[in-house]
Design brief:
eight-stranded parallel beta barrel; two-stranded antiparallel sheet; 12 helices
């Protein structure tokens, strides 16, 4: 594995827009969207005969379009395919200065991450790019990856985020579901609660412990805005910071759900002020709207203010 320090994190990933690499029109629309991150896809969204030709579309899009403050990314094919090596080498050679993140699908453990990390280091040195600048985001969508998610989350200084890919994960686990997104509303078989709770919570804890971002995967029924909102809100409640968007209509929902509301910000600031005032008077706790709060509560509310600051909602 490459030896360098992790680049400072803090990229905003409330919404990650999936965009097929074969469509120049959709790439242009993605660049003009309000998504925090756009990843140009070479994997599932692109049929095998179009994978190689799509690389030139991605290179042109990254080099020629105005991406504003978005995270610019592309998803390569999995490392066990005949396309992965050339996906990375050709696109980094053609647009390396305009790539922020490479998304790697279907990993099973740290080994695949190390492969991409080392390949990127060699390319950066060869092309005169800053070593370590291009980050990696991986998909947890195989049972082997979920089983080793703690090791994966800490395996590379390039790793910035993990995404829970529930579609492939449900197949890998042999789950009897009717499709992606079904588990959030109507399962094929009765199930009490959120069928993804264990996987979501396990990945989020691993990401938090490693200091990287936890992202929720796609919600396939893009016409069901309420279902998407519920899925995003559940992930946010557990500590996740963003969600995939497979349609532009989902971007606004993700940006809203994964940012604190004005009421939450005001409550957090008031609670922190109340504890500070109590401590100044020598008390260890404060009465805030009929509830006893202390330093531990302050830590919880500080998370809200830190997130609001990252989202640009407060100075």
């Amino acid at each position: 594995m490459s030896n360098y320090e992790r680049a400072p994190l803090g990229r905003l990933r409330r919404s990650e827009l999936s965009t097929p690499g074969h469509s120049k029109k959709m790439i242009a629309k993605a660049a003009a969207s309000d998504a925090d991150m756009v990843f140009l896809d070479l994997e599932d969204a692109v049929a095998p005969p179009a994978k190689v030709p799509s690389r030139s579309n991605i290179i042109a899009g990254l080099n020629e379009l105005d991406w504003g403050n978005k995270i610019r990314a592309f998803r390569c094919n999995s490392v066990d395919t005949e396309w992965c090596h050339d996906d990375i080498t050709e696109i980094v050679a053609g647009a390396g200065a305009n790539i922020d993140v490479i998304m790697v699908p279907k990993i099973k453990g740290p080994r695949e991450v190390w492969f991409v990390d080392d390949l990127l280091t060699g390319l950066e040195k060869k092309l005169g790019l800053e070593v370590g600048r291009i980050g990696i985001e991986c998909l947890i969508e195989e049972v082997e990856a979920l089983q080793t998610v703690d090791q994966i989350a800490r395996c590379s200084p390039r790793l910035e985020a993990l995404t829970l890919g529930v579609g492939d994960l449900s197949a890998s686990q042999g789950m009897r579901l009717g499709g992606i997104g079904v588990a959030d509303r109507e399962q094929a078989l009765p199930y009490s609660g959120d069928v993804w709770h264990h996987a979501r919570n396990r990945m989020i804890v691993a990401c938090r412990a490693a200091g990287i971002d936890a992202i929720d995967g796609p919600y396939a029924n893009f016409a069901d805005s309420e279902g998407y909102k519920k899925s995003a809100a559940t992930f946010a409640l557990l500590g996740g910071v963003g969600k995939w968007c497979i349609h532009p209509s989902q971007i606004e929902i993700a940006n809203r759900v994964f940012a604190p509301t004005p009421k939450e910000i005001a409550t957090a600031q008031s609670a922190i002020n109340a504890v500070a005032a109590a401590e100044a008077e020598g008390a260890g706790a404060a009465n805030f709207d009929g509830i006893m709060i202390d330093a531990a509560t302050t830590r919880l509310f500080q998370v809200t203010l830190d997130r609001a600051r990252q989202c640009g909602l407060i100075d």
